[in-house]
Specification:
alpha/beta; 9 helices; 5-stranded parallel beta sheet; 14 strands
Length: 282
């Protein structure tokens, strides 16, 4: 029986129970946290959940020709890359990362952008899976058959610099920045040393760490309170961060709160602060 996901977040217990389901695909989307000097995580000699396939956000699933990090692929490129790692139209995807909740929501968001709904993030990620003593192995490049995944691009899920510039004075849109308060107010340096500090005018700050507790997302009740308090007028959300990774954590939190009208600014602060002539507030 094909496995269907009804929520954007699943527990380690749920995944273990369904580990041998024939249409389950587990993706390890681990990347290094963005701190100056960090080395990238390698897919080789890496422990993972039993049966996981490495989803390479940085190299395979980002546009290598783009001027900014983590730029999303075109629908055609994404479709072909997803097929190469065995993703099918009827796959049930669970994505996780090594840091609890960090880069996995970016993959959830990318699949949403490409019109694929049967995907969830593993709450607590690999560390919680290990804590539960569920089976692990060393990551291998599984010789999976080519999948038949097809992309159905959903442009309302993504925003670009011109969209965000137009949204600054738009009273029906709320721009929310997932970076730390120190970075938002230019009191702490950006991890990418060439990037200026500050924030997009009229944006508000909700550090992604405020919706996470002990490596797991806060409860749906807590998430609803956070997002509804932040956005009492029920405006459309545009989520931003450093380069589109942690903005996707806020998008996941909003989705779990029952909010559907949200998008991610793909270039985020890296693109905004690097573009000549755009206003910056500190």
């Amino acid at each position: 029986m094909s496995l269907k996901i009804d929520k954007a977040l699943v527990s380690a217990d749920w995944l273990f129970k369904n580990l041998n389901n024939e249409n389950l695909v587990i993706l390890d989307a681990s990347i290094s946290k963005v701190i100056a000097g960090n080395e990238e995580i390698s897919a080789y000699n890496k422990q993972c959940i039993k049966g996981a396939i490495y989803f390479d956000i940085k190299n395979t699933f980002s546009d290598q020709k783009a001027g900014f990090p983590n730029t999303v692929l075109s629908p055609k490129e994404f479709e072909e890359s997803a097929q190469r790692i065995g993703i099918c139209k009827d796959s049930c995807i669970v994505v996780y990362d090594d840091l609890g909740i960090y880069s996995s929501p970016r993959v959830w968001w990318m699949f949403q952008l490409m019109g694929f709904k049967n995907i969830a993030v593993l709450d607590g990620g690999f560390s919680h899976w290990k804590y539960k003593k569920y089976p692990t192995e060393y990551l291998e490049n599984y010789p999976s058959k080519k999948g038949n995944f097809t992309a159905s691009y959903q442009p309302q899920r993504i925003k670009f610099t011109n969209d965000v510039y137009s949204a600054i004075e738009n009273k029906t849109i709320l721009i929310v920045d997932a970076r730390s308060k120190g970075r938002f107010y230019a009191k702490a340096p950006e991890p990418r040393l060439t990037i200026k500090g500050g924030h997009i005018p009229n944006s508000v700050n909700l550090p992604y760490t405020e919706i996470i507790e002990n490596g797991m997302l806060k409860s749906e009740k807590e998430l609803k309170l956070i997002f509804n308090t932040l956005n009492k007028k029920k405006k459309a959300f545009i989520f931003s961060c450093g380069s589109g990774i942690t903005a996707s954590i806020l998008a996941l939190g909003a989705e779990l709160s029952g909010i559907k009208n949200h998008a991610v600014y793909d270039g985020s602060w890296t693109e905004w602060s690097s573009t000549e002539g755009l206003p910056i507030k500190k």
